[in-house]
Amino acid sequence: MRERTRLATQTEAVQRIERELADSRELVELAEADGDTAMAAEATASLRNVAAEAARRETESLLSGEADGRDCYIEINAGAGGTEAQDWAEMLMRMYTRWAEGHGYKVEVMEISEGVQAGIKSATLRISGDSAYGWLKTEAGVHRLVRNSPFDAAARRQTSFASVWVYPVVDETFAIAINESDLTVDTFRASGAGGQHVNKTESAIRITHVPTGIVVACQTDRSQHRNRATAMEMLRARLYEQELQKREAAASATEAAKTDIGWGHQIRSYVLSPYQLVKDLRTNVEKGNPQAVLDGDLDDFMAASLAARVGATRSEASAMAQ
Fold first, then answer.
1. Which of 87, 108, 158, 283 has the greatest number of C-beta atoms within 10 Å?
2. What DSSP letter does each residue of 244-281 carry, written as one string?
3. Whether this model's pTM surpasses 0.85
């Protein structure tokens, strides 16, 4: 039913574009015949709207991966740098939350580790909505911030790093075998607000998959059993994403970027001082309004990265065929 709804929505969108294009053409012809400038302006505006809608649908057509239509988890980790990096990690969490809410997606905090003075050490969000993984998978990598530090009395310029990893939510339709003997399960007290019961009992769960070193945690529920079930779902998602990356040609560069959260590994730079600029180092897309980007204006970056990934995949497939 999910696939049927997705295909029906895409088909209806194309049909609507075709109808609006035909209507706009007729309006242009009438305006030219009557010499009506107002009607010509209306036709021009209509054509621009059709072109914008067609461009958006063209970008959506790039979401062709087998898991692109699914919900996703997004994991954010502060890099080295203490409070600066932890504050940057929290800014990223807010940025993705604003982007998701702006697209009508549901955001749920699965796990969060608060910073000592400010910000967060790490957090895991679940983003639920059509093609959430397809869009957000382009954000995986290291993000670099340059700004005058609000935590420095002299307001000196500082550089901070945080990593973002994205993996799809999977269900029973994806066969993923997990041996209980490969797991190490730890319980701990949930951090942050959540009521007396949450903070006084060890209801939070952390699961380590020993063969891969993957660690997942969940503290959203007061029930340890429900947190464990959610954590196992997250682990299956991580294992599936790991296998998916092995089979996707574009994933090799992503894996290489996971070696360190620091210099030389970032995918995007956010410069707030001495000038204002956000630049994606993979596609060279730039925006001169960092505040808008930090408020969730990420669509241009995502579209360019999707196009680059699809282009790389087609080039490698062509090379293999030759």
1. 87
2. HHHH-TTHHHHHHGGG-SSTT-EEEEEE-SSS-EEEET
3. no
Do 281 and 269 meet the contact criterion of CB atoms below 8 Å apart? yes
> Right CATH number for 68-322 from 3.30.70.1660, 3.40.50.980, 1.10.357.140, 1.20.58.760?
3.30.70.1660
- State how far the alpha carbon of 83 is from the alpha carbons of 78, 96, 114, 266, 311, in Å: 9, 20, 11, 19, 39
Would you mind telling me the total number of residues written for the chain in this entry?
Answer: 322
* Rounded-to-integer distance, Cα 293 and Cα 277, Å: 10
Interstrand relation of 106-114 and 277-280 (parallel, antiparallel or unpaired): unpaired
Q: pLDDT tens digits, residue range 160-197?
A: 999 999 999 886 666 677 888 888 888 877 665 544 44
Residue listed under structure tokens 């630049």: 279
Whole-number Å distance between alpha carbons of 277 and 271: 5
Higher-pLDDT residue of 196, 114 = 114
Distance CA 236, CA 190 (A): 22
